[in-house]
Structures are given as structure tokens and as C-alpha cells.
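**Backbone geometry record:**
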Amino acid sequence: MDPQHGSPPPSYAQAVADTDDVIPESKKTASPGDLVVSRKEAGQVVVATPYMYYEKVAPSFKPYQEYCPRCRCTVVTVVEYEMGCFAWLIIILIIFVAFFLIYILCCIDIRDAIHHCPNCGMVLSRKKRG
């Protein structure tokens, strides 16, 4: 054995023998992504399965009562709003329509014609559309 690294690591059976003492009480409930450990007393067989929680589709945009699997109690939800695909689509559509309207108002011949003198700039006549 290399004296620089110390003692060898414990065996698997020794490492998993006292896991209940290592896990603090605050972490005894499973969180999404945690491993749920079940133990067989005779022979110390440890089975670790991942705890997965999939988000459901909310029934409303307002707070409602729901069961929380992490807290294991019924709560009233807190709503947080974020920009989704629909909001960005509406913004892009509004920008497109706004630029189209600006183009129509400024670039196409829907404007009135005002005739000026090229020397002094005096308005000589007007031609209105419509």
C-alpha cells in the first residue's frame, strides 16, 4: 500500500451499512431527482430508485389548491409569469404589423402633394388624395 494515500476505502457492505445515520432529518423526504432508498433487513440489500416528478398542466392561470409531493401536503399555488412562445409570437406579429403600417403611411403614394417654389420655398398649390 502507498503510505501517501492512507487506508483503503471501505467495502460496499461497510459503506451502505449506516446510511440512516448519515442522512439528516431535513433530507429524509424525497425531492425530484433524489434517490429513494429502500432496505431489506436480512442481508442489507439496498435498492435505489430515482424519484421523478412530472409537471402537470395547470387548470387555471390563477392560484389553485394542489398536492405537493415534495412537502406531502395540500397547498395553494404561487403563480409566476414568464414570457412563453405565444407572447413572443404576439410581439413579433405586432412589430411586423407596425412596420407594415409605417411603410404604408410613409412610402406608398397615399400622401397629399404640396407644390413649392424651388427658389423661395413658398407653397404654390396642394393636391389632396380622396
The CA atoms of residues 42 and 109 lie 91 Å apart. The radius of gyration is 36 Å.
